[in-house]
Design a protein that fits this description.
Strand content: 5-15%
Distance between the termini: 38 Å
Shape: globular
Radius of gyration: 20 Å
Largest sheet: 4 strands, antiparallel
Structural class: alpha+beta
CATH architecture of one domain: 3-Layer(aba) Sandwich
CATH topology of one domain: NADH Oxidase
Strand order of the largest sheet: 1-2-6-5
Number of strands: 6
CATH superfamily of one domain: NADH Oxidase
Order of helices and strands: HHEHHHEEEHEHEH
Length: 231
């Protein structure tokens, strides 16, 4: 985390060691892979509430992510207020109407067709929580001094991935919702101008009749996503 005046490197002995032997390592990562295969993006949420402490713990896990120069250029806004969720949904659906009525090209719309998306976003009001992810273009110290953040998209992407993983680990589901543009979210949620909203995550339990698109289960095989150069 950036702090004005702290510019020297001070090494700290590795505080935690969680390494395993080869056999245990392979067993653990295979189990984790199989567990992550059970993660699904869900659009229909149950009305069952989720404790704020659970949401806070998920965000705290995301906050442990690595970042450029350790500036941690992210902020997460957790919304449970029903009236505020309605306003977020209204803003998102307004953007989506423009998207589906001509803002997106034919190729993009064709790519989305198997996913089953559309203008109406009931998940934004049905889910007990919305987590809005903001990326900080630059930082500001307590005395108002501006400082540069580094690798902001990469850093926020890592933190968001860890947040989604934590949500799954908590036994919850979410949906990666990205209305574009999302400029309405900053003023609505009281965030400063140097923060850019990048994603809305509705979070909760899946509805009894929740479904996922069949195409979402089609993942590229390892041979298509991995290249190895053996020495």
């Amino acid at each position: 985390m950036y702090a004005k005046g702290e510019v020297s490197y001070q090494p700290l002995a590795l505080p935690d060691r969680v390494q395993l032997d080869d056999a245990a390592s392979l067993k653990a990562v295979n189990a984790f892979r199989d567990y992550m295969r059970k993660r699904h993006s869900v659009r229909r949420f149950a009305t069952r509430p989720v404790a704020e402490q659970v949401i806070a713990a998920c965000i705290a896990a995301a906050g442990t992510a690595p970042s450029g120069a350790n500036h941690q250029p992210w902020h997460f806004v957790a919304v449970a207020d029903p009236a505020l969720k309605v306003r977020i949904r209204e803003g998102a659906e307004e953007e989506e109407r423009e998207f589906y009525s001509g803002g997106a090209g034919d190729e993009w719309l064709a790519a989305l067709e198997p996913i089953g998306t559309g203008v109406h976003k009931p998940h934004l009001t049905d889910a007990p929580w919305l987590i809005v992810v903001f990326a900080q273009r630059y930082g500001v110290t307590t005395d108002g001094t501006r400082y540069k953040n580094y690798y902001v998209p990469e850093s926020v992407g890592i933190a968001t991935g860890m947040l989604i993983t934590a949500i799954h680990h908590a036994g919850l589901v979410c949906l990666e919702h990205t209305p574009n543009p999302m400029k309405f979210l900053g003023p609505l949620l009281g965030r400063p101008a140097h923060e850019k909203p990048v994603m809305i995550l509705p979070v909760g339990y899946p509805a009894p009749d929740a479904t996922v698109p069949a195409v979402a289960k089609r993942k590229k095989p390892l041979s298509e996503i991995m290249t190895v150069f053996r020495g």
